[in-house]
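Give me the 3D structure for Sidoreflexin.
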Amino acid sequence: MASAIPGPIPLPQSRYDLNTYMGRVKHCAGISDPSMLLNSSADVETAKTLISDFKNGKIKQMTPELWRAKRILDSTIHPDTGETVLLPFRMSSCVLSNLVVTAGMLTPGLGSIGTLFWQVANQSLNVAINIANSNKSHPLSTRQLITNYTLAVTASCSVALGLNSIVPRLKSLAPNTRMILGRLVPFAAVVSAGVVNVFLMRGEEIKKGISVFDQDGNDVGLSKKAAFYAVGETAASRVINATPIMVIPPLILVKLQKGFLKGKGVGIQTFTNIGLICATSLVVLPFALAVFPQRQQIHVSKLEEKFHNLTDSRGNKLDTVEFNRGI
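Predicted structure for Sidoreflexin (327 residues):
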């Protein structure tokens, strides 16, 4: 994010009002736009230079060119380190990176092996995205990463296989109801494992705290309470993000298979499934991402006592600080 670029002059968080939900929706639509992946390394460096010039007083006001530079950095670089996030794990790649594994998980009639394969693939992608975008106050060791990954995969596979075994036995339900429940099994597995994944991968943040910053971007200390807010909201956002993408397409597909797709080949049904997932992701993802702000302000009274009487570089008492929630 552009906030990682150093300089004494604070950068506007967005051209939209991030205190409102619709403002955050418009902002998230910009940084999750897949066209941002087309920016080259030279574009990123040019954007860094422009933002640095603004934050150091060489440019006096925001211009359309500066807003685009900020958008490039918000969708490309890590907010804590300022380093470029690997392309498949950027926010702007979210739809494309998740498209294949989501389509795989939502494929009707998967057997046990297929279910296991796609759940492992999904958790592998989740772990990679977590590592690339998490708050960097306390990076995990290789051993911790392997342990957490193993537990997350175990949770997702256990839920998926368990529900796939249970749903067909619910003879008291109508066949159509059992079919719909079966199509929603991947959603239950992804949500449960996603929450486990977040708390496992970011447990060190809760134990040790995350960095909080004043309005000028200066690090003012570590806060465990801020970490709890950050990780808790990220876990909730995983549920919110997954709900439309993993619920709407399979339900529409069930309806289409009784009408337009009835009797059609596997290829056409698969193409339709992928199209539904892609369209839903592009339309709905910004609304899901916008539920919680990415860079969030919090009143110092909600944090540890050591933050209650802090002052900024100008000697003014700090009433609020901010932290990076992570994704």
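The CA atoms of residues 54 and 60 lie 6 Å apart. Let me know if you want a second pass.
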